[in-house]
Design a protein that fits this description.
- By secondary structure, the chain is an alpha/beta fold.
- It has a single domain, classed as Beta Polymerase, domain 2.
- It has three helices and seven strands.
- The strands form two sheets. The protein has a five-stranded mixed β-sheet with strand order 1-2-5-4-3, covered by helices on one side.
- Helix 3 links the parallel strand 6 and strand 7.
- The longest helix is centred in the last third of the chain and has 11 residues.
- The chain is globular and about 55 Å long.
Length: about 160
Amino acid sequence: MSKHVLERLQARFADQVEETHSNQGDDTAYVKRDKLVELLTFLRDDAELAFNLPVDLTVVDWYQKREPRFEVVYHLYSTTKKHRVRLKVRVDEDDARVPSSFPVWPGFDWFEREAWDLYGVRFEGHPNHTRIMMWEGFEGHPLRKDYPINKRQPLTTLLGEQK
């Protein structure tokens, strides 16, 4: 794969692309969150790029290894152009939020809910920002590297159980 995707992205969003790298078909761009939805829309709608398949969205927790602590990672693929790109958005622990990609790709709905539930990164503007893996009374975000492994959670009642 060429660096064509990264070059187009940098040409259109020069002030939003912090850095890029490309290695053996693995194109990655670190982008600012400010215009993330506009950038994702461009990747989907640009005829030369045509990213039409949102593959994955996850979070990396760099706890005590680097700052900012979190990276929100988007994997996109073009089924017509046969290229892929990875976008990474760095977010601080104290301000762990990014705009929701739901308006661009509704298929990222559950991915965003899972990332919030397990890592605590908030997706602003998401239409159903509720837990998807843990129960509503769960305290904390269990995939954070500083989550206390032996933490006790509030008790819940099972469906149909009498009190």
